[in-house]
């Protein structure tokens, strides 16, 4: 999996060290613009810190989120995938119908129990609100799915995509993913990770971040600790 919109938070104490250590302002707070420059000098080439700021009180990058957005890219060319796209695009090798993909995806939208599309975790909740699941053809052989939800359980996006691709190439009927959803029995169709990219995370206004994190922890934390 890849990410262009990953958000993280780090708890730190004010730094008041001698000159030559981490850059700080007159209040002992790190100079974040200079810090980003330093981080990117030492990070591997496939990781970059694009920006940083002091977070509002109570912010949690994971639990304060109200929505996450992913994309999944697939090549349906019979010869595979463009070599320049091979790291983030799945080579499917069968023609795909965008119309069939969208029709089957629409039936999965809403607040539902996605146990059929989640890797089982003891005590975890699999109820999620799938808010967007739409497909479009970007060029002759490249198709992209956009998937958004209030949260995703483990392997949910790849499981959804894997099931829908079987519909798109005609091996399963349009109503099959909805039948799988209703069965609450996990299916084996899971798309490979390299076609998946996290492209964005939405948060509420700053004064609602702490409350959102507390609300989400009440629903998710026992799950994640199990």
UniProtKB/TrEMBL annotation:
UniProt lineage: Bacteria, Bacillati, Actinomycetota, Actinomycetes, Pseudonocardiales
Keywords assigned: Isomerase, tRNA processing
EC number(s) given by UniProt: 5.4.99.12
Name of the protein in its database record: tRNA pseudouridine synthase
Catalyzed reactions: uridine(38/39/40) in tRNA = pseudouridine(38/39/40) in tRNA
Major enzyme class: isomerase
Keyword field contains Ubl conjugation: no
Domain Pseudouridine synthase I TruA alpha/beta, chain residue ranges per copy: 104-204
UniProt similarity note: Belongs to the tRNA pseudouridine synthase TruA family.
Pfam family, one: PseudoU_synth_1
């Amino acid at each position: 999996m890849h990410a262009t919109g990953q958000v993280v938070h780090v708890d730190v104490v004010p730094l008041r060290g001698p000159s030559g250590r981490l850059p700080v302002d007159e209040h002992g707070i790190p100079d974040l613009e200079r810090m980003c420059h330093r981080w990117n000098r030492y990070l591997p080439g496939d990781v970059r810190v694009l920006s940083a700021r002091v977070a509002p009180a109570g912010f949690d990058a994971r639990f304060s989120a109200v929505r996450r957005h992913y994309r999944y890219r697939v090549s349906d060319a019979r010869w595979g995938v463009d070599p320049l796209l091979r790291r983030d695009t799945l080579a499917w090798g069968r023609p795909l119908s965008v119309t069939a993909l969208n029709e089957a995806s629409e039936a999965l939208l809403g607040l539902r129990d996605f146990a059929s599309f989640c890797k089982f975790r003891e005590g975890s909740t699999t109820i999620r609100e799938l808010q967007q699941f739409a497909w479009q053809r970007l060029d002759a052989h490249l198709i992209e799915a956009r998937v958004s939800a209030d949260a995703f359980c483990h392997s949910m996006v790849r499981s959804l995509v894997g099931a829908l691709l079987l519909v798109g190439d005609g091996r399963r009927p349009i109503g099959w993913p909805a039948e799988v959803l209703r069965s609450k029995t996990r299916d084996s169709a899971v798309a490979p990770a390299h076609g998946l990219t996290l492209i964005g995370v939405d948060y509420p206004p700053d004064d609602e971040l702490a409350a959102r994190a507390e609300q989400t922890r009440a629903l998710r934390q026992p799950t994640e600790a199990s």
